[in-house]
Amino acid sequence: MQAHIAIIGAGISGLAAARTLHEAGHAMQLFDKSRGSGGRLSSKRSPFGELDLGGQYFTARDPDFCRAVTDWQKQGWIAPWSPQLYQFRQGRLQVSADEQTRWVGTPRMSALTRGLLGELPVRFATRICEVFRGDQHWQLLDADGQLHGPFSHVLVATPAAQASPLLAAAPELAAQAAATAMQPVWAVALGFQQALPTPMQACFVQDNPLAWIARNASKPQRGGAIDSWVLHASSEWTRQHLDLSPDSAIEQLSAAFGSVLGTTLPAADFSLAQRWLYARPAADSGFGTLADAQRGLFACGDWCQAGRVEGAWLSGRMAAGNILQSISAA
Ligand code: FAD
Ligand code: NAI
């Protein structure tokens, strides 16, 4: 059978792999349980503009990733974001400007993944529940009982906890995924008709329920008519408040935001909350990707490398390299 590769997950890691395999001339099919691409780089449309509730920005350090970033900027999928940066530590708020280039998708974080997806074949709203092997090839079973295949290779590009059951046909890989802890994060978005009286556009927070504050409206091409903010709780606080209702999360994190600004916030004109159960790997693993080349089963994602956009992209590229090697060795 000619190579036909299934990729489960259309986040940045799955898409990095898909593009590499496509450029090498191989057929593939992407699957994602969501209605669009992006995974943790997803954005929400709201009456207050596009809101980035997951990944906030990314930096580029690896030379290959830096080259890709230059290309994405030329395509108009990303732009630099240079917020008025602050830090809050031991109850003190202060300016914390630096020289770091930070990139965001335009006009929303997920636009980068839309660009990478392009015309590649994808089935959205398709949750894969089982990956199993017949005599010669792989089949996938989705949550509606539909079978997909045959495939010569399968790449699982989901967070570790979701990858483990899909890797059951290669027990060592499944065990490694199961052993990877991922941390949760509560995210809250707030919109104010009247801009909050602060020059702050982003803030790294310590010693507080929050870990990060961003003036979403200050990112390029967000409209900016409404003063929108995104707050991320620390993973530690989130673990202790995992079962809060969205309304309580909004209330408690809004109060924490007020304490950072040293004021009581006016009532928000818009708010929403999202709980990310698998926001980030607890530690950087650095193994890059998982491969059972003999069976043709592979895994990638930030949890294989480092819990950042760059780590996820590098992992996807490495997985594609392993698949190409196994195709040429066959
Ligand atoms: P994901 O983006 O999680 O993609 C996995 C995909 O698999 C998803 O689309 C999901 O729907 C799909 N999927 C899962 N299970 C199935 C299934 N059974 N069947 C079909 N599809 C399935 N990184 C930074 O660099 N900078 C930041 O500022 C930053 N901030 C962050 C803030 C938050 C709150 C979060 C959550 C993450 C943040 N990150 C940040 C991390 C960054 O977003 C991730 O490292 C990166 O997006 C992970 O990409 P991925 O492809 O590995 O996984
Ligand atoms: P980066 O270099 O901007 O930040 C790395 C870390 O350095 C920051 O978390 C912060 O603690 C510190 N830092 C950087 N600049 C600072 C400044 N001017 N003042 C004070 N502290 C500063 O970005 P990098 O390395 O690409 O990391 C990505 C970001 O994504 C980090 O902020 C990380 O915490 C965040 N992230 C958040 C996740 C979540 O679930 N909330 C998941 C994965 C990453």
From TrEMBL:
<dbReference type="GO" id="GO:0051287">
    <property type="term" value="F:NAD binding"/>
</dbReference>
<comment type="similarity">
    <text>Belongs to the bacterial renalase family.</text>
</comment>
<dbReference type="GO" id="GO:0050664">
    <property type="term" value="F:oxidoreductase activity, acting on NAD(P)H, oxygen as acceptor"/>
</dbReference>
<dbReference type="Pfam" id="PF13450">
    <property type="entry name" value="NAD_binding_8"/>
</dbReference>
<dbReference type="InterPro" id="IPR002937">
    <property type="entry name" value="Amino_oxidase"/>
</dbReference>
<dbReference type="InterPro" id="IPR034721">
    <property type="entry name" value="Bac_renal"/>
</dbReference>
<feature type="binding site">
    <location>
        <position position="40"/>
    </location>
    <ligand>
        <name>FAD</name>
    </ligand>
</feature>
<dbReference type="InterPro" id="IPR036188">
    <property type="entry name" value="FAD/NAD-bd_sf"/>
</dbReference>
<feature type="binding site">
    <location>
        <position position="302"/>
    </location>
    <ligand>
        <name>FAD</name>
    </ligand>
</feature>
<dbReference type="GO" id="GO:0050661">
    <property type="term" value="F:NADP binding"/>
</dbReference>
<keyword id="KW-0547">Nucleotide-binding</keyword>
<comment type="function">
    <text>Catalyzes the oxidation of the 1,2-dihydro- and 1,6-dihydro- isomeric forms of beta-NAD(P) back to beta-NAD(P)+. May serve to protect primary metabolism dehydrogenases from inhibition by the 1,2-dihydro- and 1,6-dihydro-beta-NAD(P) isomers.</text>
</comment>
<keyword id="KW-0560">Oxidoreductase</keyword>
<feature type="binding site">
    <location>
        <position position="128"/>
    </location>
    <ligand>
        <name>FAD</name>
    </ligand>
</feature>
<feature type="binding site">
    <location>
        <position position="309"/>
    </location>
    <ligand>
        <name>FAD</name>
    </ligand>
</feature>
<feature type="binding site">
    <location>
        <position position="13"/>
    </location>
    <ligand>
        <name>FAD</name>
    </ligand>
</feature>
<dbReference type="GO" id="GO:0050660">
    <property type="term" value="F:flavin adenine dinucleotide binding"/>
</dbReference>
<keyword id="KW-0285">Flavoprotein</keyword>
<keyword id="KW-0274">FAD</keyword>
<feature type="binding site">
    <location>
        <begin position="57"/>
        <end position="61"/>
    </location>
    <ligand>
        <name>substrate</name>
    </ligand>
</feature>
<feature type="domain" description="Amine oxidase">
    <location>
        <begin position="109"/>
        <end position="324"/>
    </location>
</feature>
<keyword id="KW-0521">NADP</keyword>
<protein>
    <recommendedName>
        <fullName>Renalase</fullName>
        <ecNumber>1.6.3.5</ecNumber>
    </recommendedName>
</protein>
<feature type="binding site">
    <location>
        <begin position="56"/>
        <end position="57"/>
    </location>
    <ligand>
        <name>FAD</name>
    </ligand>
</feature>
<keyword id="KW-0520">NAD</keyword>
<dbReference type="Pfam" id="PF01593">
    <property type="entry name" value="Amino_oxidase"/>
</dbReference>
<feature type="binding site">
    <location>
        <begin position="32"/>
        <end position="33"/>
    </location>
    <ligand>
        <name>FAD</name>
    </ligand>
</feature>
<feature type="binding site">
    <location>
        <position position="308"/>
    </location>
    <ligand>
        <name>substrate</name>
    </ligand>
</feature>
